[in-house]
Amino acid sequence: MTRTKTRTTAALCAALVGSALLAGCGSGGDQRPDAAPGNSGVPHGYVEGAEEQPEQQSRLVLADAGSGAVHVLDLITGDVTKLKRGAKARALHTDGRFAYLDTPDGTRVLDSGAWTVDHGDHVHYYRAGIRDLGTIGGAAPEHVHADQALTALSPAEGATRLFDREKLEGGSIGRARTLDSGATGPVVPYAEHLLAAGAGDDRDRVRVLDREGTEVASLDEPCAKVLGEAVTRRGVVLGCADGALLVREEKGKFSAEKIAYDGEVDAQNRATGFRHRAGSTTLVSPSGADAVWVLDVTDRSWTRIETGPLAAANTAGEGADLLALGKDGALTSWDIDSGKQTARTKLLAGRATDAATIEVDTGRAYVNDPGARKVYEIDYNDRLRLARAFPLSLTPTHMVETGR
Hints:
This protein is an all-beta fold. The chain has one helix spanning about 165-170, and strands at about 5, 50-55, 60-65, 70-75, 80, 90-95, 100-105, 105-110, 115-120, 125, 130-135, 140-145, 150-155, 160-165, 175-180, 185-190, 195, 205-210, 215-220, 230, 235-240, 245-250, 255-260, 280-285, 290-295, 300-305, 310-315, 320-325, 330-335, 340-345, 360, 365-370, 375-380, 385-390, 400.
C-alpha cells in the first residue's frame, strides 16, 4: 500500500453556504413558511402537511433495474413503502429530499417525504407522506443540485433545466426553464446564484449566473475538464484536471481557490466524482480502479489511499475513517491520516457491482446488496459492526438516502 498526501496552505473561510439542505431563516423552500408574524399563531418551523421531528428522518429510496420496482425504506421505523412499478431505472439521484430516476420513459420524480432544514444555529427535521410526482421527458440528468428556490437537472450534454422548488414541495413538477443550451457541465444553485461549470466555448471557465441565467461574473481561476462536484459548508467544490476548485461567496462577491494535486496526476488517476456525508467538508472520489482520493476542504489537502479493486467509497467526515467497498464484496475502513486499514468484513453475498453504494449519515453507513436482496446498516464507529440487515422483496440495484 502506498500513500501520497499534499497540502495547500490557504486562509480558511468560515462562511456557511446554501445548498439543498442549507437555507437562511425566513427564506422560501423546505422551511416554508418558516417564520410567521408574531401574531399569526403559527409556530416557528411550521410546514404545512409535514410533522416536525426531534431527529433526522432518514429514508432509503431503492430501485430495481430489472423489474422497475421502487421502494422507500424508512430507517426510523423499518417500514417499506412500495410505489407503483414503472420503467426500469438506469440511474438514481437525490437532492436530499426528492429522488430522480433515470428511465427509458424520462426522469421519474419521487418525493421521499423526509428532509432537513439547517439554519446554522439550529436544525429542523421533517417527515411527510411519500409521493410520486410524475415523469419529466427529455435527456436524463447526469447532475442534480438544488437550493431553497431551484432544482437544476443537468444532462451529460445539452441544456440544464431549472424547476421551481416550491412547486415540487407542493406536489407538482411544474414547467421547466431551460438555462443554457451551450452548457456541458454541472449547474449548481449556490448563494442565490447559479454556478455553471464547463459551459460555453471557453470550457475551462466557471461562470456565475443570476437566477434568470444571465452571467454576472466569471471566476479568474479556471477548472479544466470538470469531473465531479459537491456542495459543502465551505463552498462548492469542482473536480478539475489539476485538482479541485473551491468556489465561495461572501457579501455578494464570488471567489475561487485551486486545491492542486502535488505534481502531475495521470488522467486515469484523477478524482472523477465526489461522495460525502451531507454537511461534511471531507470528500472522497475513486482514483483509478484501486485507490481513493480524500479531499479535506478545510485543510486544503489531498490524500490518496490504495484500497485494492474498488466498487464504492465514502466517509463520515473529519476524524472519521474512509469506508471502501471492494469488488470482492468486502467492506474495509482506513485511517486517513496514517493510511492504515483499521477493520475489514466480508459483507456482500457475492461480488460488488458498479451500482454499489455506500450512504453515510452521522452514526451509520448503508450498503446495498443486490445479490442478497438486502441493505446492510453498518456501525462504522465499532469496527464495521453489522447493526441491522433489511431483507427486501426487490433487487436494490440503485440506492440513495434522503432526509438530509
